[in-house]
Amino acid sequence: MARNYTLHTATAAAPRIDYQAELNEQQYAAVTAPPGQTLVIAGAGSGKTRTLTYRVAWLLDNGVLPEQILLLTFTNKAAREMLERVASLVTADTTRMWGGTFHSIGNKFLRWNAERLGYRKGFSIMDREDQKDLMETVINSSGIDTAGFKFPKPEVIGDIFSLADNTCTSVEEILKTRYPYFEKIAEQIVRIRKLYQDKKVETNCMDFDDLLTQSVRLLKEHEDLRERYQRQFEFVLVDEYQDTNSLQCEFVEMITGRDGNLMVVGDDAQSIYSWRGADVGNILQFHEYWPRATVHKIEVNYRSVPEVLSLANASIANNKSQIQKQLQPAREAKGQLPALVPLDSGSAQAQFIAQRILELQDEGTELNEIAILYRAHFHSMEIQMELTARGIPFQITSGLRFFEQAHVKDVAAFMKFAINRRDEVSFMRMVKLIPGVGGASALKLWNAWLKTDASQADVMTGKFSDLLIPMSVPKKARETWDQFAYTLDELIIDGVPQPPPAMIRSIYEGVYEEYMKSKFKNAEQRQQDLEQLSNYSSRFTDPLEFLSQLSLLSGVDTDNKPDAQPEDRDAVTLTTAHQAKGLEWHTVFAVWMADGMFPHARAVEESDAGLEEERRLFYVTITRAKDELYLTYPLINHQARDGDILMRPSRFITELSMDLMEKWNVRSGW
Ligand SMILES: Nc1ncnc2c1ncn2[C@@H]1O[C@H](COP(=O)(O)OP(=O)(O)OP(=O)(O)O)[C@@H](O)[C@H]1O
């Protein structure tokens, strides 16, 4: 018979932490949970980080060796911060602990063992750029005809493969559900996948997803390694479990073993990443998969005033798929209900927010304690303009300023060139979008253009196509080049530049839509941006005036450096709801709270699951507010193409009792 014998560290006898005093009752129960499998459901603002760090400290205080603990997090920063916090709590040598993202841990396993999978020592890890280059090489040598705009660019193909890997599904399935417009070339894409995989092994390279897929394979195929790591990692902890995907779950199981000690922490109500492969089922059905697991709920919220929390609780109660919980406020009531603010238009909404921000500032709220949250990037366009106009500094944490985005600049390049036919920069930007046209051919085309009379004339009298089509272009570029020329014809008719919305529509329908689908994985979002751009442009009759305005808006306020840390800058934060996860502010403006905008129209059409995910996103949005919450929406959405559209408040608002909010009637004053 075998005898179990446990090693203890020297510090085990003398814990320095008064766990009971430093944690609330529910946190304490989770932190001190016995070994085995444990699911910790920690509601918004209930102290997930504190619970995890104290759990690690507790393990160390109870004799677990640092190297026996593995902490898996979503970012390396999160792991670093947690481990630093643990180091400050305990005397044990925490440097021997294992903590990091799934990928960084996978990388460690593979560094030692990749040879068992047919790789050689010292494999390289490809970043996105390298991955794109290798994919390009593979596609070019595959013999597949990729001419024209329709064939997806290497980045998009990479994204399709990545989704298939992370959701443990086939490429065909990903195409069917997420990229239906590429279904007809499924066979070629599958072929490219095989070639790409072979090429990676041949060149001894792994991409980011390999770090996980190959780690899972390693542990699946090699029992000795599986046993070794399962024995080493006596305690596995996983943060943000609601956002794990199928591959990560497999990884966790491989490393923990069916009988291992696993603690996962998360909030099912904040699972918002299904679009990139996360599966909320991992947390909702945790108990089915790990039947002996105990469940702990942490339901005290330290962040928000009770008024905000009541609204959040009432909202999420409408979701059917969820683990029941009722967050309790630790804070005192403030006497101010969340505000529901309908406004006449998008620009009135922007004015309201700007004005209210200035008032809040006068009342003593720092600008970096204020955030504007939205469902889609284009919802921030008018707000960016208004804040700029009023000199209110802001930073955008979720991407570039609206007018600096590639697709906005691409479309503007067509317009600029059509109007100013000596604009070399715009010409080059435009023609380089064509497959087969690189820097050298673009320059040749530019020189050919300079020889035409039209390039020097003040008014464009003839047709672009008459001049451009006869030019010599690379064979691969011919079809698209001609299409470009005809599109330019539509921008200036009989010497008269067309109104900006008409120009944008011609460019979009003539050339850009196809390009966007093949080039960007988030083509749909970009399409919405361009629609919004077109709506905005309908205020201008003169395209030149519109273009000047665009350039001015993207060039101003160089102070707004995206790399500056939010906490370092006295600036309002503009961010999508997705990017706001894990953050908090004194005041939150949740904007465009209109049906079809939030929830997103597509999610409503799709399925109940889609709508529930949108509601979770709404929940994440409102639970970011500590003291003040404003839900705003325009009553009229001005559309360049369809005229004014009457908006209704979001169903996430109308399904709630109006007693939970205070409606503000806003009027324009003189
Ligand atoms: N026992 C406690 N006593 C006092 N304050 C606490 C306690 N536990 C957590 N807090 C505080 O609660 C706040 C919210 O914690 P944290 O940011 O970790 O929440 P969270 O669970 O990650 O929230 P979310 O998931 O909504 O982002 C923090 O300021 C934290 O210091």
Automatic annotation (TrEMBL):
E.C. numbers: 5.6.2.4
Domain UvrD-like helicase C-terminal: 306-582
InterPro entries the UniProt entry points to: DExx_box_DNA_helicase_dom_sf, DNA_helicase_UvrD-like_C, DNA_helicase_UvrD/REP, P-loop_NTPase, UvrD-like_ATP-bd
Residues noted as binding ATP in the record, renumbered to the chain: A42, G43, A44, G45, S46, G47, K48, T49
GO biological process, one term: recombinational repair
Keywords per UniProt: ATP-binding, Helicase, Hydrolase, Isomerase, Nucleotide-binding
Family note: Belongs to the helicase family. UvrD subfamily.
Name listed for the protein in its UniProt record: DNA 3'-5' helicase
Organism encoding this protein: Prosthecobacter debontii
